[in-house]
Amino acid sequence: MGDLMLSEAVAKFPGTTKFSAYLKLNTSLRASLDKAGKYAIFIPDDAAFAKLTPEQLATLDSDATLRDSMLTYMITAVPVDPASLKDAQQVPTVNGTSSPLTLTKSDTGLRLNAAATVVCGAITTARATIYLTDTVLFPPA
């Protein structure tokens, strides 16, 4: 996947159907991610979306603002290397909010905001490193 653009890699990555479909709806975000920068993207796997209630999923499906907020909150504005992370390191996201992701290393792996766990990670693409998570995160209100 190293030579693929981010949106291509996400679309081909197994278990990321829902996130990939949402990313496909945001053409400007896809274009930005594919042409410049180096990112880390924390993709909630399909099991993470299955944890949401039917009402939450329906809202994500119909509310582009909420959906785009979730997408951009899961993408960091800088690369992430777990080996060099400091404990409880805050990493800015492309969401633009003043609420960065807090990354914590534990015995069970890498955690985000003490709520999501990386279940698979460090898959490199041309523009990003992909990590799969077990929970969908939204920026704080």
Automatic annotation (TrEMBL):
It comes from the Bacteria. Transmembrane segments: none annotated. PROSITE patterns: FAS1. Residues 3-137 form the FAS1 domain. Gene3D superfamilies: FAS1 domain. It holds the Pfam family Fasciclin. This is Putative surface protein with fasciclin (FAS1) repeats. It comes from Antricoccus suffuscus.
